Amino acid sequence: MSGSTTRLEGKVALVTGASRGLGRALAVAFAREGAALALCARGASALGEVARAVAALGADVLAIPADVRSSRDLERLVALTLDRFHRVDILINNASELGPIPLPYLADYPPPAFDDVLQVNVTAPFRLTQAVIGGMLLRRHGVVVNVTSDAAVTGYAGWGAYAVSKAALEGLTRTWTAELEGTGVRMYAVDPGDMDTDMHRAAIPDADPSELARPDDVARAFIQLVTAADPALVGQRVEAAALGR
Amino acid sequence: MVASPVRPLPALPAELRANLPAELRGLRRDGVRLMVIDRAAQSIRHARFAELASFLRTGDLLVINRSRTVPAAVPAHREGGELVQLRLCVRHAEEWHVLCVEPDPPHRNVALREGERLQVAGVETVVRGRRADLLLLWRIDALSDGLERMLRSGEAIRYSYVPQPVPLSHYQTVYANEPGSAETPSAGRSFSWELLLELRRHGIQLADIVLHTGLSSLQDDAVDAEHPLFEEWFAVDATTAEAVNRAPRVIAVGTTVVRALETAAGRDGQVGVVEGWTRLRLEAGSPLRAVDGLLTGFHEPQASHFDLLRAFLDEPLLERAYREAVAARYLWHEFGDLCLIL
Fold first, then answer.
1. How many residue contacts between A and B have a Cβ separation below 8 Å?
2. Is the pLDDT of residue A1 over 60?
């Protein structure tokens, strides 16, 4: 660890979609704060590279190549994580699917692609959260962060399936928060804003990178959210830019 | 084994075997029935599991087994190419003890050869030999990355009364944590978090242990009738030990919890912080030092489960409860109804 504070010493964080973009930045940021990490992504080699980077920061890390659409992969991810670390304190549902590129209008959207986006962006976070929240409820402690987007609240042409999925994820966050009242387990939906990532380049190739947030800065906002436990933000849609970095 | 002095109970009607979890039978997970046996009053009442809070008191401690079920039935190929199914029973660091059965129902036992090599989930293992005390269990070299391999290629162990595969998620309790059970700790399977949080609001406490279950059947009626005993790994942590020692009434959710807590209990009834293997056999006359009540499923009278129930119930009340459960058509086995013994 560097000389900085380690606010997540002794905590275990599980991050999906950890091989690139925000997921990678979150893995690094959590490692710097002293957390143990379980990381998953579809691509084993990119995931392995992130795992080596966070291990070099001193983190205890478990990398599990997994496709969150597969129930067998989800069970393997959860079981191996709990076998190694015995608990999950922080779950970040970050893995996201944008859909076909360039983004088609809903009138033209291939239905199987629509289903696939909902499966990755809604069903998988639901199932993964369900699989780990039991342990959190037993210990009366835990944080789940669902990564959302402003597409959830604003209609942008072409963003159909992605927008629907993120609106659903925010609905899931609100409902689950009502059910978690008084349990000590918190859930948030965080909109990281427009970031300089592969996904953003795929969606909006001509965006000016200098106007985009850096994933590392956004990751610091996540740390702030997870550690500060501001009751006013629980269950809310939180914009990363509005959090202290 | 000492011969049981008991007159035989009538056989369980086949249609009372639950063949699907409640939530796949059009009910809620916690929508099963609950038979409540009050030992002091010698009474038997019939209720819904969702009404559990009304049978408990503020301050009662429910102790659950948080072990996660693994897909412990794993396909394997013998040297000649023959496909068999290995069922994990005991997982030691260097050596696994497995049942070897035919891949299809009725899953009869298959005899392996000492020194034989098996291909299991993409890796080779060697059969070391039979277990001296349980000849149907084979000792094999522990698979490297064995848990991961099981999770990739195994299925939940399923008995004949469950005709179709049921997804593993339905075998898990809603609080399943560390993986390791070959069969689901089923007494707690019917809990929903909605019910558990309601119990908390009523001042009923919750604590947890881990006990990784082995096999409930070795696929041989004669051997199963002898009630084979093998070791199971368990852990009772400090938080739970303190809660048990403080609680006015401790109710074990499942016989695995009874086994863990009674192993961890000293002669003075105080439960210690213990982890390791238990070989404790509980039967009629066994002292219950830590546990005051039991929530359990209904299992065949031939199963060792009934031996353990005899530690809680005298023979007349046990027999009465059995006959009443059959007459009232309670469903049996891991997806069935529940019984609360107070």
1. 55
2. no
Asked whether B253 and B238 are in contact (CB, 8 A), the reply is no
- Give the pLDDT band (50/70/90) at residue A244: low
Report the pLDDT value the prediction gives residue B1, as an integer from 0 to 100: 43
Mean pLDDT of chain B: 95
pTM for the full predicted model:
0.95
- Residue A122 DSSP symbol: I
Residue of B nearest to A184 (CA): B197
Domain ranges of chain A: 12-224
Find all residues with CB under 8 Å of A227, minimum gap 6, and list them.
A7, A8, A33
**Chain B CB within 8 Å of residue A137 CB:** yes
What is the tens place of the pLDDT at every residue in B17-37? 999 999 999 999 999 999 999
Fold of the CATH domain A12-224: Rossmann fold (3.40.50)
Q: Model confidence over B262-318: pLDDT tens digits?
A: 999 999 999 999 999 999 999 999 999 999 999 999 988 777 888 899 999 999 999
Q: Break chain B into its structural domains and give their ranges.
A: 14-69+164-341, 73-153
Listed range (A192-196, B6-10, B327-331) with the worst mean pLDDT: B6-10
Arithmetic mean of pLDDT, B99-126 = 96
Minimal Cα–Cα distance from B66 to chain A, Å? 8
What is the average pLDDT score of chain A? 94
Chain B neighbors of A71, CB-CB under 8 A? 167-169
User: What would the two tokens of residue B165 be?
Assistant: 């595969």
Please give the C-alpha separations between residue A45 and each of A14, A15, A199, B81, B227, in angstroms, as whole numbers.
18, 16, 18, 33, 49
Instruction: Mutation target for B interface from A62, A78, A176: give the one with most B CBs within 10 A.
Output: A78
Q: Does the CB of A181 have a partner CB in chain B at under 8 Å?
A: no
Q: Please give, rounded to a whole number of angstroms, the shortest distance from the CA of B197 to a CA of chain A.
A: 8
Indicate the range of B10-19, B185-194, B333-342 predicted with least confidence.
B10-19
Architecture of domain B14-69+164-341: 3-Layer(aba) Sandwich (3.40)
- A162 has catalytic annotation: yes
Which residues of chain B approach chain A closer than 8 Å at the C-beta? 66, 68, 70-71, 147-148, 151-152, 167-169, 172-180, 193, 196-197, 206, 208
CB A198 within 8 A of CB A19: no
Beta strands B205-211 and B137-141: pairing type? unpaired
Environment class of A200 (CB within 10 Å of its CB; exposed 0-12, middle 13-18, buried 19+): buried
* Best residue in B88, B191, B193 for a mutation probing chain A (most A CBs within 10 Å): B193
- Unique residue bearing structure tokens 């905590």: A11
Q: Which residue of B has its CA nearest to A66?
A: B152
